[in-house]
């Protein structure tokens, strides 16, 4: 996937290194998740579903700004993943993300990962 | 910027500096919409002092920049991190060296699927060229396609016939009137409420190939209530 147009940069780790055999895969985001960068997240999720990687934890702890387009992308990710058999989505959030989700009334729409590791 | 990386010890983290000119979000035949940038605050500073815009639009966005934020540069960060609005700058394709306005969706309710539309054409020379119509259309498509909206609403002062006709051209319907809900500093005016549903936006999209922005307006002010 080319993520350059959206201002996103993709890691080069191979998919096999991204997940454990039983646990969810983590997608780590850093910087603003806004109208400019949200399309790349959508593309990442679409690709993950196409590859059968339907158990995802999106790590938002390094996100510095979250606007309506970013939240809409997260909502779509949840909808797309949870439409798959055994598909799940959990978020790891920081204060910026939590505030944006609270302000928009969407925080209850997501499962927030608070466990150790990941 | 944002980086997406897969978990793994060899996954690098990279970033690039922000784009000064903003990123293009949507393109039309006459205008394109780009992201709001810190450099746009200079334009905003001029627009908020325009009494014509104040009377015709009465924008809370512009008023907030002037009166709440006192034209502070911090306003940019506040807009960027406001998850209830999307602010896009309108640029015309040819012969225009400055932005011709700003369009935004605000009070966005993502779960309920509705938001409010505000389109501001700030350059008098850019009016009656279809720029506002197309900007409103593009951001409406964005609202449906990206934000998942199913309804968009707009309010217009009863004397702003140009905005009412622009909304009608985009398929908005007059849904009601808020009697004497607006105050221009001298007297109270009615606010006319317009709305459009997702299906109606899709119907408008089908008409894009015969879109003729320089046709005479369909309406002449507000409809009888």
Description of the structure:
- The complex is a heterodimer of chains A (118) and B (225).
- With 118 residues, chain A is α/β, with parallel strands linked by helices.
- Chain A contains three helices and five strands.
- A four-stranded parallel beta sheet of chain A has the order 2-3-4-5, sandwiched between helices.
- In chain A, α1 runs parallel beside α2.
- The N terminus of chain A is likely disordered.
- Chain B is 28% helix and 29% strand.
- Chain B contains seven helices and nine strands.
- In chain B, β4 and β5 form a beta hairpin.
- β2 of chain A pairs antiparallel with β1 of chain B.
Properties at a glance:
heterodimer; A: 118 residues; alpha/beta; 4-stranded parallel beta sheet; 3 helices; globular; disordered N terminus; B: 225 residues; alpha+beta; 8-stranded mixed beta sheet; 29% strand
Describe the structure concisely for a colleague.
The complex is a heterodimer of chains A (118) and B (225). Chain A is an alpha/beta fold and 118 residues long. In chain A, 31% of the residues lie in helices and 26% in strands.
Rg of chain B: 18 Å
**Strand and helix order of chain A:** EEHEHEHE
Whole-angstrom Rg of chain A? 13 Å
| Average pLDDT number of chain A | 81
What are the segments of chain B in which pLDDT stays under 50 over at least 5 consecutive residues?
A: 1-19
> Unreliable segments of chain A (pLDDT under 50, ≥5 consecutive)?
1-21
How much of the residues of chain B is beta strand, in percent?
25-35%
Largest sheet descriptor of chain A: 4 strands, parallel
Shape of chain A: globular
- Count up the helices of chain B: 7
């Amino acid at each position: 996937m080319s993520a350059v147009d959206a201002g996103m940069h993709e890691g080069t780790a191979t998919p096999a290194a991204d997940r454990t055999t039983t646990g969810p895969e983590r997608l780590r985001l850093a910087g603003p998740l806004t109208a400019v960068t949200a399309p790349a997240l959508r593309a990442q999720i679409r690709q993950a579903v196409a590859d059968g990687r339907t158990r995802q934890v999106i790590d938002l702890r390094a996100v510095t700004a979250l606007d309506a387009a970013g939240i809409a992308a997260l909502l779509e990710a949840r909808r797309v993943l949870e439409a798959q058999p055994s598909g799940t989505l959990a978020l790891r959030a920081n204060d910026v993300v939590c505030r944006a989700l609270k302000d928009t009334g969407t925080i209850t729409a997501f499962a927030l990962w608070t466990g150790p590791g990941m | 910027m944002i980086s997406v990386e897969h978990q793994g010890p060899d996954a690098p983290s990279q970033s690039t500096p922000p784009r000064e000119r903003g990123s293009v979000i949507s393109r039309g035949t006459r205008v394109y919409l780009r992201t709001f940038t810190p450099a746009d605050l200079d334009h905003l500073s001029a627009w908020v002092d325009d009494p014509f815009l104040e009377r015709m639009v009465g924008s809370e966005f512009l008023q907030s920049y002037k009166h709440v934020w006192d034209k502070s540069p911090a306003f940019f960060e506040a807009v960027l991190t406001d998850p209830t609005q999307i602010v896009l700058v309108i640029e015309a394709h040819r012969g225009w060296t400055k932005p011709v306005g700003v369009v935004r969706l605000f009070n966005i309710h993502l779960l309920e699927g509705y938001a409010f539309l505000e389109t501001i054409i700030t350059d008098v020379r850019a009016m009656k060229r279809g720029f506002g119509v197309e900007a409103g259309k593009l951001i409406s498509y964005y609202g449906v396609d990206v934000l998942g909206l199913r309804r968009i609403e707009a309010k217009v002062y009863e004397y702003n016939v140009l905005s009412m006709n622009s909304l009608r051209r985009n398929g908005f319907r007059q849904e009601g009137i808020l009697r004497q809900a607006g105050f221009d500093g001298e007297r109270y005016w009615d606010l006319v409420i317009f709305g459009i549903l997702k299906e109606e936006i899709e119907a408008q999209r089908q008409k894009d190939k015969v879109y003729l922005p320089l046709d005479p307006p369909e309406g002449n002010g507000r409809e009888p209530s």
